[in-house]
Amino acid sequence: MANFGDYQLQIYLQGMLQGTTPEITTDLARLESQAAGKLSAEAMGYIVPSAGSGATARANQAAFERWRLVPRMLRGSTERDLSCTILGTAMPAPVLVAPIGVQTLAHPDGELATARAADALGLTYTHSTQASHAIEEIEARNKWFQLYYPTDPDVCLSFLQRAKAAGYAVLVVTLDTGTIGWRPADLDRGFLPFLKGEGLANYFSDPVFQSKLAKPIAEDPGAAVMQWAQMFPHVGLHWDDLSFLRDNWDGPIVLKGILHVEDAKLAAEHGVDGVIVSNHGGRQVDGAIAALDALPPIAEAVGEQLTVLFDSGVRTGADAAKALALGAKAVLLGRPLLYGLALAGQPGVDHVLRCFLADLDLTLALTSHANHRELNRDSVVRG
Ligand SMILES: Cc1cc2nc3c(=O)[nH]c(=O)nc-3n(C[C@H](O)[C@H](O)[C@H](O)COP(=O)(O)O)c2cc1C
Ligand SMILES: CCCCC(=O)C(=O)O
């Protein structure tokens, strides 16, 4: 059996024997500056910055810095087993592709490339409601669908039915983006890709959405965009609205954007299957708690009843190991994948995923763990 960490030896050997070095850095925290050379100022402004002053994004990184792994010795295994089954989906490692909208901003192949790269490694790809490619275009064995619950229930139902028909296994309902946060980098440029018609593929391909328009989209795209702008903001969404999803989706449901332990308990009471502890990478509520700081109490309160997943600020194998030790069953990778996509399309995403998995695998090997399930609260200390 091969270990994900073997990618490290492969890179060394290519350097030593063929004189080639990776075109994309292996330091995932540095990807952002490398990708800056490839992306327009508008795309960088949309992808990189966080809401407001960026305090929450900084808090995410600071929280990872505060927690420290405490390595064990002499109990490891030559072969690590990172495989797991999360909500019925078999995974080779506890790592998923986070839902990220409008990926053609980063590369013309957009979500098609990201999904293919994930699929080639057997990883689960999560497709955003705000994607640049439609639900049906994604070819991946393991795919989850992320819902931004539209205010129009007919369109919502249509999304659920399309996702089910196209083979998506799990519904991820994002709760932290009832509307778009205060994002100065975009505001100062007056730039929002959706208002240019980008990232609306799921809406524009939807027959129910189309039926609500006075004219076909090709004849009046501006009106179609404004129709989306009416349906997207949903700050009035309530716990009771989840029953509509429960009634119309027969697979697992996961709530993304949970940070308060009471909301995690309410999630359990409302019969969902999992939560993603996340602050949306700091893109929504500036000043919000670091996602990693929210994780331990939530895992403690509902970890037995619900599948607890995590994202926001995960950049290294050590970050993933810390989140797993603090109670997450798996982590979702966000911006680094988009930087890999910007730099080289599908091979760029593949490289980023392989680096991340190798780093996690080597972290387990070096801390004497045979698999990630052995990580627990004793594996970390708060510095
Ligand atoms: C450009 C961009 C677009 C995103 N689009 C979505 C989306 O459509 N739906 C969603 O639930 N989360 C979306 N997210 C949030 C990610 O799923 C994830 O929570 C976040 O990227 C994690 O933070 P990190 O990138 O710092 O690791 C987006 C993030 C970025 C950077
Ligand atoms: C309308 C917002 C959808 C994309 C998103 O979630 C993000 O940019 O963070």
TrEMBL record:
Where along the chain is FMN bound? 99-101, 128, 146, 174, 256, 278, 311-315, 334-335
- Please verify whether the record's keywords include Lyase: no
Signal peptide positions (record)? none
State the needed cofactors, names only. Answer: FMN
Which GO terms of the molecular function aspect are on file?
FMN binding; isomerase activity; oxidoreductase activity, acting on CH-OH group of donors
Cited Pfam families:
FMN_dh
Keyword terms = Flavoprotein, FMN, Isomerase, Oxidoreductase
Q: Indicate which residues the UniProt annotation says bind glyoxylate.
A: 46, 148, 183, 280, 283
Q: Where is the FMN hydroxy acid dehydrogenase domain?
A: 20-383
Q: Where is the active site?
A: 280 (proton acceptor)
**Name the UniProt record assigns to this protein:** Isopentenyl diphosphate isomerase/L-lactate dehydrogenase-like FMN-dependent dehydrogenase
Species of origin: Kribbella solani
